[in-house]
Here is the input.
Amino acid sequence: MDIRTQSALLASLVGLALGLSMLLRPGRPRVVTLYSVFALTVAGYYLAFFFAGIFPEPGWVSRIAVGATILVASFVPGTAVSFFLEFLGVGQRPYSLGRRLALLSSVFGVVVAVTPLALTSWARVATGVWVLGTLLTSVSLLLNRVRTQESRIERLRLMYLAIGAGAAILLTALDLVGRRYDIPLPPLGPIFSTLYLFFLAQTLLRLRLIFGRSQPGSTL
Here is the structure.
């Protein structure tokens, strides 16, 4: 078991713990539920990634693990966008666009995961590019709110969230490139992704504790 596989297992356990801890909170608001779904989806991706790493190809177990990795990865953009739309309290139109994005990403993932496409390198690369590209939608949502936010403190908070999301996406992309071309890069993607999930959880708890609000104008 190499360091990438170990880091994926660690990320799945941390993501699972964060998702369940928030999901089990009494009287949780919708934004916390959506965060839990997001965290559990990320944990599921890294768990599938872990099994894909410990069972070498070819083989039916490896085939199932690879398909599960692609399938769960396709769910991540939808859960991320749904959470940030709720967190930022955007209007109805962006919600509709978010649902369409989630549906399109899920259909794309299912098509690749359950067909022989999952065994082709170009389909895996295309899936990775799609997932990471659509995740950038979350960053754009945060940056748009930064530009329209009047409070300096809230602008800084949202800017930190945007920078963290961008860094997690970039490091995850570098991990995938390193694995694809066998480049010995440190597995920073899983580590930073779990740190970002922890930062999001603390942000939600702090805002609820201090302000009783998920963000200005939207109650927790």
